[in-house]
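Support request, priority: normal
Reporter: lab tech (M.K.)
Component: structure prediction queue

Hi team, I submitted a job for uroporphyrinogen-III C-methyltransferase from Thermoflexibacter ruber yesterday, and the status page still shows it as pending. I've pasted the exact input below so you can check whether something in the sequence is tripping the parser. The sequence length should be 252 residues. Please let me know if I need to resubmit or if it's stuck on your end.
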Amino acid sequence: MKVSPKLTLVGAGPGDPDLITVKGLKAIAEADVVLYDALISEELLIYAPQRAVKLFVGKRAGYQSFKQDEINQLIISHAFQYGHVVRLKGGDPFVFGRASEEIEAAESFGIPVEVIPGLSSATAIPSQLQIPLTQRNVSRGFRVMTATTTDNELNEDINNVVKSNDTVIILMGLHKLEKIVQVYQDHAKGDLPAVIVQNGTLPDEKIVAGRVQDLVSLAKQEEIGAPAIIVIGESVEFFVKQRKAVVELAKL
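Reply from support: The job had stalled in the queue. We restarted it manually and it finished. Here are the results:
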């Protein structure tokens, strides 16, 4: 049987398998191969044909199973051997998902590419928690960024966004939390409301909320770990107050 190579990049959403798009599920159902990331619910693999090859290619900080070049090679080799490769990525493929690198690799071999967007954790998690990223007279915009550079240094852009009134969403920032807090304190903004969410949208979700200056102690106290997002800004104030009331009520 003739093999027709194809690559489809599918955004699986922020964690909860129910938050993938209908079009994303249809792509999985038509896959000959599914290459899936670390933050993907394995429930989604049920939608793939039984005959489909399912291969974990996840990368996590400190625990890397495949380098990006190796993933690119797997995409190419599996597309020519089996046909339709679905690259299942957490969140949205183009939000810190290295999608462009995988597309470039596939297209260099003449493999057609389709992209199916997904809900990014940067917007989906705050939305589910009813945290507005934009709010009239409070925040006119929001910024999404990673905490680190490729050299594992603190992202210098944090020094710029702290000067604005925009809501800031920091991904992959837990291991740089102390430095992030220090930047805000250096700009006299340690009192801004903030929240850290681990495993957002999942049953084992953990949340700490308070002021930027208290984030390090709160995270240690609640044993917050990766994956987590950090949301900072005046628009978080309502959630912080609500969360504090719930915590106080639970103590009664």
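The chain has a mean pLDDT of 94. The longest strand covers residues 6-11. Let us know if anything else looks off. Ticket resolved.
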